[in-house]
Every structure is written in C-alpha cells, then in structure tokens.
Amino acid sequence: MVRRILWRLGGLVPLLFVISLLVFFIAQAGPADPVQDVQSQRMSAEQIAQIRAAYGLDLPAWQQYLNWVRDMVTHGGGISLSVRSPVSGIVFPAFVNTLILIAGATVLTVVLGVAIGFVSGIRHGRLIDRIVMLFVQVGSNLPIYWFGLIIIWLTAVRLKWLPAGGMHDLRGDGGTGDLLAHLIAPAFAASLVSMLIIARFVRAAVIESEQSDYIRTYRSQGFGRAAILGKHIGRNILAPIVNITGLTIGSVLTGVVFVETIFSWPGIGSVLLNAIAGADYPVIQSGILVVATSFVLVNLVTDVVLDLLNPRLRHGAA
C-alpha cells in the first residue's frame, strides 16, 4: 500500500510540470498586453520598455516560464502587474475563502445526495421514488447561474432568512455564525448538480445491491432489513460514494466561479475574473495553477481512500 501511494505521488511530478506549461503558455497566448493597455496613454515608449524590463516581460517565453516557476516556489508567484503587490497575498487568501465554500458545498453534496439516493433506492418503483427522480431530472439541468439568482430571490428577498451575498456582515462580529449564515445559500447553489449526480449513483447502487444474490441469501436466513441496509448495502455503496465525491469536488471547483460572482463571495473565481479583465498574467497563472493542483490532489486522496477500502489491497499491505 505504501509503495502504491509513493508511486502515485511520484506520478504527480510530470503531471504538475505539464499543467504548469499549459497554464503559462495558454495565458501568454492571450491578445491582451497589460503594460500597453494600462500605461500607453500616459507614458512614452521608453518608459513602457523600462516597465517591461522591470517585470521581465521582454525576456524570451522560456525564460519567463522559468522565472515564474522560480517565483512560485520561492515567493508564491511574483508581483501582480495591476495592483503591484505579491501574488501570494492575492491568490492564497482568496483560495482559502474558496476552500471554505467548497467544504460547505461538499458536505451538502454528500449528506443530501446520499440521503436522497438511498431513500429513492430502497423505495424503488414507488411514488416517492418517482417524485425524487423527477426532482433529480429537473435539478440536474438547472444552470447554476440561474439557480443562484432564484436562491437569492427566495431566501434573501422574499423570506429574508439569509443575506444576499458576501462572506461577512460589515455590521456583524464576523464570527462563525455570521460566516455560516452567508455560506448556506452559495454552498447549496454550488452543490446542487453534484448532489443530484451522487443521488443518482447511490440510487442505482442500492437497487443493484438489493437485487443481488447475497442480499437474497441474507433475507432467507432471517436478517432484518435495517441490518441488511446498514451493514451490507451501506458498506458496498461506500466505494462508489467516495469515487463520485472526488469527481464532484472537481466539478464544484469549476462551477464555483459562477457562484462566487452571483453571491459576491471573495474567492479565487472573483480574483481570476478581475485578473483576466486586467490581463494580470502572474495572478491568472498562479490562480489557475493552484486550482489545478488542488484538483489533482483531490483525485490522489480519492484514489488512496479507494485503495484503503479495497480488502485485497489492505491484505496485501498487511
């Protein structure tokens, strides 16, 4: 088992190298020029050339890439071209806010998705199963942007239960309760599609397990329904739940940009949108690399957990 984990960790090195190359050169291929756009109307050509030299923008692309990698390792990404401050001070605090949002969305995704799928699976073919599947079918096709606006209208405008946006109330104490109140609506919006995907997989796994031969054997031997559901079916669907959860965290990462924009959540999505508008390459490259690296690490953790849940690998490790 330890050897498998080390092998997977070793495989991350070439993968992260390829990701860093793609992130850097795709960002560089954009038509925008940050120095030319911002300073061209107020500075001479010589002054613009001096700014390019100061930020290393006049160097060959391969040398800029090496400098960027060096800055990522030693200084967290260099200096922002638009706000003239360290990239690490812009990207990492925003990414922590995004992680809080993703954590809330993941909890809702797993808890509600498993509950919906489990109830629908054990009531397969009945009225509640049909209602749940109709809800799953409709909800899976809702655009996140539109769904987020509906949540704001319902919870903040009509019912006045939750704040409309932001991460903290400027007049509040900024404590955990205030954060949770601001987190519920965007986390639910970010989790909807992933939650319904998990519900669909759990429902299918429960139906397949209930119709398997070994479950019929347990029933014939007099095992109670609660014991069969909790001990045997629940254990068998654990691996698919972990697998789908790892995949859905990636989809939440990609969809969280829209959610942060709608709910004014100060996360990495908002930072990237502002950086793209200002052609701030160091922030764009560092932000995307941080998100991509997180996605790779989530998949690694998912693979390790799946290996730990595999009895053959556990016995091999022992």
Describe the protein.
This protein has helices spanning 2-28, 34-39, 45-55, 61-75, 87-122, 127-140, 144-158, 176-210, 213-220, 225-236, 238-262, 268-277, 281-309, 311-317. The protein is built from 14 helices and no strands. The chain is mainly α. The chain starts with a helix and ends with a helix. Helix 5 (87-122) runs antiparallel to helix 6, helix 5 (87-122) packs across helix 11 (238-262) and helix 12 packs antiparallel against helix 13. The protein has two domains: 1-75, no CATH class; 90-309, MetI-like (MetI-like fold, Orthogonal Bundle), CATH 1.10.3720. It is globular, with a radius of gyration of 24 Å.
Query: What quaternary form is this?
Result: single chain
Measured as a percent range, the helix fraction is over 70%
Order of helices and strands: HHHHHHHHHHHHHH
Strand pairing plus helix content: what structural class? mainly alpha
